[in-house]
Every structure is written in C-alpha cells, then in structure tokens.
Amino acid sequence: MFRRSQVEIPVDLRARLEVARLDLLALFRALDRMHLAPEQIPQRLIRSYSNSTPIMWNAPRYAGCPGAVAGGWLPFRKTLPSQAQRTLSQLELTIRANLSPAEAYNMVPGRDSQSG
Predict the structure, then answer these.
(1) To the nearest whole number, what is the mean pLDDT of the chain?
(2) Which of 25, 54, 89, 94 sits at 20 to 30 Å (Cα–Cα) from 7?
(3) pLDDT by residue (tens digit) across 17-33?
(4) Total domain count, the chain
(5) Which domain holds residue 52?
(6) How far is CA 81 from CA 34, 57, 109, in A?
(7) 106, 25 in Cβ contact below 8 A?
(8) Residue 96 near residue 63 (C-beta atoms within 8 A)
(9) How far apart are the C-alpha atoms of 22 and 25, rounded to whole Å?
C-alpha cells in the first residue's frame, strides 16, 4: 500500500532553490573579488555555514527576495569591517544581476536546468 508523505513539497521548490543557490553564488563571488585580508574573513563562520544544511534547507522560505538567502549569513556579514559590508552588498547585487540561471547548477554533477 502506498502511503502519502506527511510533508508537502511546494510545487515551486526547484525554482526557489535555484534562486537560493544563485544568491549564495553571488555572495561568494563578491567576497572573492573584494580581496580581503585573511584576518578580515571569519574562516570559522564560513566553514560552519558552508557545511550546514539549514541554510539551503530553509532557502525556499527566503527565495524570491533578492539576497535574502545570502542575507541569512548575517552573523558572518557583521564580522566584516563596516566598509567591507557596504562594498560587499553593492558588489553582490551587481554580480547577482548578471548570473545566468544555469549557474545554479554549477558543481552539481550530472545536473543542468533542463533535466528533472
């Protein structure tokens, strides 16, 4: 007998995850382009967020608001020097606006935006 799952998966889950992945990609590319000194980047926070599934698991909840998922990195952002925070926000928006939707699938082996 087939049992229906108690968890309802939103119809637009894939699109929302794509937005979340692109937001995070823009954040990391912006950080990379800022050429911050190692002591200006809280490595421990990057590792803890990067290795944490809650950010991506909760991503659909935030998707649709530009930068909202990446904004979930607020504790990380607050540790950056104030001038770096302003530069990061501006650079992140510029990068995000120029990302292709296909880039949501970077580093996802065997996946592309057309496959199911």
Answers:
(1) 76
(2) 25
(3) 888 888 888 988 998 89
(4) 1
(5) 13-99
(6) 12, 29, 36
(7) yes
(8) no
(9) 5
Q: What is the pTM of this model?
A: 0.69
Q: Is 6 a member of any domain?
A: no
Per-residue confidence band for 12, with pLDDT thresholds at 50, 70 and 90: confident
**Residue 68, both tokens:** 């909202």
Alpha-carbon distance 106 to 102, whole Å?
A: 8
Banded model confidence at residue 53, pLDDT cuts 50, 70, 90: very low
Residue 113 lies in a domain: no
For residue 89, give the amino acid letter: S
Kindly list the distances between the CA atom of residue 16 and the CA atoms of 32, 51, 65, 91, in Å, as whole numbers in the listed order.
25, 20, 10, 22
Give how far Cα 70 sits from Cα of 11, 36, 73, 79, Å.
22, 18, 6, 15
Q: Would you call 22 exposed, middle or buried from its count of C-beta atoms within 10 A (0-12, 13-18, 19+)?
A: buried
